[in-house]
């Protein structure tokens, strides 16, 4: 005899029901899933660049800064310092050039020497000998202008013919530059001849030459005897 579908049957100590409708006696429902919550994220805040500079200008300034930073080296700094010192010296020289002629005394005589106003006071001066006639003030200045404390250079020439007397002077405002120039430039070619340098005793030389010039002018001014008078 076939068993009834709705009947129950026993196996051991457990009782099982064969009713299909009673397999899940209680309906099973999944809990509802809550909808996703979207949080409002504030937009990112970036630092605002100054409005006075546009982006191309800022990039250009940055490139210039980096280029200048790479180009700055000890030699460049020294050249800048030398240029500043040379500018100050030129300013002092212009001031000295505006001074009045300086009175001089030697051998009991007094005169006014206008050439001394062209040179700075208390300078350090080199005597430059063996100069050819082709050497002028500019050529002599270019030979010594690389020294930071170079003041000026002058070639002494004859007043009438304008030919060089074969010597000149170079002025420095620092004794170290004078010593360096004397050591480095002595025997070097300036123009067509090797220059001969030594520390100048220009004050005594100027006094002696001035006295000789005055004596020569006084001799020329003596009255000549008339050949008609005995």
TrEMBL record:
Pfam families recorded: RRM_1 (PF00076)
GO molecular function (one): mRNA binding
Keyword RNA-binding in annotation: yes
Superkingdom, taxonomy of origin: Eukaryota
Compositional bias segments (type: Basic residues): 216-230
Region (Disordered) residue spans: 201-230
InterPro entries with a match to the protein in the record: Nucleotide-bd_a/b_plait_sf (IPR012677), RBD_domain_sf (IPR035979), RBM42_RBP45_47-like (IPR050825), RBM42_RRM (IPR034215), RRM_dom (IPR000504)
Keywords for this protein: mRNA processing, RNA-binding
Bias kind Basic and acidic residues: ranges: 201-215
Domain RRM: 124-202
One of the GO biological process terms: mRNA processing
Record-given protein name: RRM domain-containing protein
